[in-house]
Amino acid sequence: MTTSTQTIEQLAGKEYQYGFVTDIEQETVPPGLSEEVIRLISAKKQEPEFMLEWRLKAYRHWLSMTTPEWANVHYPPIDYQNIVYYAAPKSKADGPKSLDEVDPELLRTYEKLGIPLQERAALAGVAVDAVFDSVSVATTFKDKLGAMGIIFCSFSEAVREHPELVRKYLGSVVPTGDNFYAALNSAVFTDGSFVYVPKGVRCPMELSTYFRINAKNSGQFERTLIIAEAGSYVSYLEGCTAPMRDENQLHAAVVELIAHDDATIKYSTVQNWYPGDKEGKGGIYNFVTKRGRCEGRNSKISWTQVETGSAITWKYPGCILKGDNSVGEFYSVALTNNYQQADTGTKMIHIGKNTKSTIVSKGISAGHGQNTYRGAVKILSGADGARNYSQCDSLLIGEDCGAHTFPYIDVQNPTARMEHEASTSKIGEDQIFYCNQRGIATEDAVSMIVNGFCKEVFRELPMEFAVEAQKLLEVSLEGSVG
Amino acid sequence: MLEITSLQARVEGKAILKGIDLTVRPGEVHAIMGPNGSGKSTLAGVLAGREEYEVTGGAVRYLAQDLLELAPEERARAGLLLAFQYPVEIPGVSNVYFLKAALNALRKHRGEGELDAVEFLALVRGQLKTVQMDESFLRRSVNEGFSGGEKKRNEILQMALLEPRLAILDETDSGLDIDALKIVADGVNGLRSPERSFLVITHYQRLLDYIVPDFVHVLMNGRIVRSGGRELALELEEKGYGWLEAEVTVGA
Predict the structure, then answer these.
(1) Does A331 touch chain B (CB under 8 A)?
(2) Which residues contact A143 (CB under 8 A, 6 or more apart)?
(3) What is the pLDDT of residue A362?
(4) Which of A61, A227, A446, B108 is the most exposed place for a label (fewest CB within 10 A)?
(5) Cα–Cα dist A359/A342, whole Å
(6) How far is CA A233 from the centre of its chain?
(7) How far is CA A425 from the centre of its chain?
(8) Does A437 contact B at CB distance below 8 Å?
(9) Cross-strand pairs, A26
(10) Helix, strand, coil proportions of chain A in percent (round to 5)?
(11) What is the ipTM of this complex?
(12) Which residues lie below 8 Å from residue B246, measured CB to CB, with a gap of 6+?
């Protein structure tokens, strides 16, 4: 925080700064969900037959399911027939072949979001896939990565160009019927990112997807699949924003990761969907299923998430630790301000021997925000020598917010070692006064204290994004201290 | 420098300060002594701007400003520093980061450029020696897990860095062994200058053996009941506060 002397007024002026709408001609399908709509989406994307079958199977399953009620979040029922399931900028039905063909209006949109898509202007060392509503509009550095055998492309392209990989891995970690939202996503997902890192290759740059919801009344249903072959390494980051609208919008994504022997996948999220206004009107419902499978020995999957946006967040990035000695990690900062609600945490399933998981969760509640940590650690009978360390800390700012912790533990192997630590604290008047007495303004003091609280998580983020995350917290906390 | 007239204040509805008059000129060291509950720490808190202390009467002028009109951080930026009796812990925030943020807040206020990490480190390394702390001290979280003596030395380190015009030491000697006390006193004595004033609040005269005051005031039941030179502190040590208490009661 180099901005430690920013004044309260400056901070107060900064609200959600990504709330603009891009005026672009859209191609959409009529609202509502039916087999017909799914066939239409599949046809638009020129998918092979197996994909359509897969979607329809998921849809039929979804019809038999009900919305999960167990989460500590409250919202009126969603009318799934009122959502537009496909919205794409009109100019590019087939997708542009190169960046030169991308609609300049879209390039400007991403530039405004701080994500230049021109490779020469791009953030050094970061390749970006830009997803705008239902479609990927550009992917940078594809050629450079391709030379190393790394596939980084939109999901649609992967379905067309690498159907054998998609067929093998899609749904292998999150099956179509896993849960209500995963089933919905499987039926209607439109795009997302696909990453394949071949054996022994260390991906030389951060891969990143930037999701943008723009169209009104549309939902975003993206799918991300990352496969790391034996001995490979990849670090992936996703970011997301949406315009400010009075209606709630649904975002139901599925992310699947597969790490083979000795492979490492590091997956970071900076989630900044529109959170709704100060009275809780509008905002994104972020109902996401993310799971990784440590398939091989000594593999490692690490989730880091900074969740500051969305009206409601419902997500539990987890790891299935199948390979012996595999490692799962979950580092999370979730912030709820105003009327935001978050029910988030992780699931660590220990199957292999000597598997190890680490969970560090930091929940920050301000305003009327409600923040719930929900985490499950399951150690199956064959997981000799499994170890888990969990740490869940909650920080409260003000009198009207809430923090809740629900750890679930299921141990079926007597050699397992579990540690769980939890704490709840309030930002004290004493701490703020101490900072004030050293000349530090109250807003800066709060940022400093909150950043200190989140330090263990921020240090897991790639360098460029750790700074972003800190700034995001400052802005998201704006006005939370009177 | 500082002119307090008829200052009255209460905490949670209870009157604690019942009319304090005190003038501190540049370069002077004033000791405020008194038994527990006499209002010493309340006086320090009111001067620094603690919210829970409600000023009910009187005035405080500080460097030609109405001190009571200023927010706590404005008082700090105007050169008023309170060394806390109980320095506050801030987990996860490194000491060096905190010190730099504080110094840069002041520098910005004074229209000076902010120091970058390298410049700051060079500056703070020199200051560490005066309080006999090693560099690991900078990387630890602010006051977290510090011993009593380390916390107080950290306060003096901040004083050395922030170069206040008026430093208020609120029972800085409490909980210190003799070695730590000497380090703290040496730190303070090294900062004494014709432009800088000190208000040293203490229960015991022991500290005043090391930080020799120009004036000693005895605070009792919210009022200064006696003022004198250094010899007053020695007299108090010999006779205890009871002697003055009896005298005040008789006098009233």
Answers:
(1) no
(2) none
(3) 92
(4) B108
(5) 17
(6) 20
(7) 27
(8) yes
(9) A89
(10) 25, 35, 40
(11) 0.95
(12) none
Which tokens belong to A342?
């978050």
Give A56: exposed, middle or buried? Use CB within 10 Å, 0-12, 13-18, 19+: middle
Residue B20, CB-side half-sphere exposure with 13 Å CA sphere: 33
Q: Do B76 and A449 touch (CB under 8 A)?
A: no
Say which amino acid occupies B160.
A
* Buried-state track B176-201, b at ≥16 Cβ within 10 A, e below 16: beeebbebbbbbbeebeeeebbbbbb
Among B50, B236, B245, B81, which Cα is nearest to B163's?
B81
> Cα separation of B229 and B30, whole Å?
9
Q: Where are the beta strands (DSSP E) in A166-271?
A: 193-197, 206-212, 223-228, 233-241, 248-251, 254-259, 264-271
- Average pLDDT, integer, range B48-76: 95
Query: What pLDDT does residue A283 have?
Result: 84
Residue B159 φ/ψ, nearest 5 degrees: -60, -45
Interface with A, mutate which of B12, B47, B52, B73 (most A CBs under 10 A): B73
Residue B21 φ then ψ, to 5°: -125, 125
Whether residue A92 has pLDDT greater than 60: no
What is each CA distance from B130 to A78, A438, B99, B186, B190, in whole angstroms?
A: 65, 20, 16, 8, 8
Q: Which of B141, B147, B144, B136 is nearest to B92 (CA)?
A: B141
Q: Which of A121-130, A237-246, B158-167 has the lowest mean pLDDT?
A: A121-130
Tell me how far apart the alpha carbons of residues A154 and A45 are, in angstroms, rounded to a whole number.
12
Q: Stretch A201-216: mean pLDDT, rounded?
A: 81
Torsion of CA A46, A50, A51, A54, to 10 degrees: 150
Per-residue pLDDT band for A456 (boundaries 50, 70, 90) equals confident
Q: Give Cα B237 to chain centroid, integer Å.
A: 22
* Contact (Cβ atoms closer than 8 angstroms) between residue A25 and residue A90: yes
What does the alpha-carbon distance between residue A415 and residue B67 come to, in Å, rounded to a whole number?
64
| Interchain proximity A452–B76, CB inside 8 Å | no
Using a CB–CB cutoff of 8 Å, tell me whether A481 touches chain B: no
Instruction: Give yes or no for a contact between B60 and B242, defined as CB atoms under 8 angstroms apart.
Output: no
pLDDT at A459 exceeding the cut of 70? yes
Between CA A45 and CA A188 the distance in angstroms is 12
pLDDT over 90 (residue A197): yes
Would you give the DSSP letter of residue A346?
A: -
Rg value, chain B, Cα:
18
Alpha-carbon span B32 to B174, nearest angstrom: 14
The token pair at A324 is 């012996």
A4 touches chain B (CB under 8 A): yes
Inter-CA distances, B96 with A427, B157, B161, B165, B188, Å: 21, 11, 11, 23, 21
User: If DSSP codes are grouped into helix, strand and coil, which group holds residue B49?
Assistant: coil
Amino acid at A268: S
Segments making up each domain of chain B, as ranges: 2-251
A172 and A217 Cβ atoms separated by less than 8 Å = no
Chain A contact set for B71 (CB, 8 A): 436
A148 φψ region: left (φ > 0), alpha (ψ -120 to 50), beta (else): alpha
Q: Which of B51, B93, B108 sits opposite A448 (nearest CB)?
A: B93
Q: In the CATH scheme, what architecture does the domain B2-251 have?
A: 3-Layer(aba) Sandwich (3.40)
> Which residues make beta-bridge pairs with B220?
B223
Tally the residues of chain A.
Answer: 482
Average pLDDT, chain A: 84
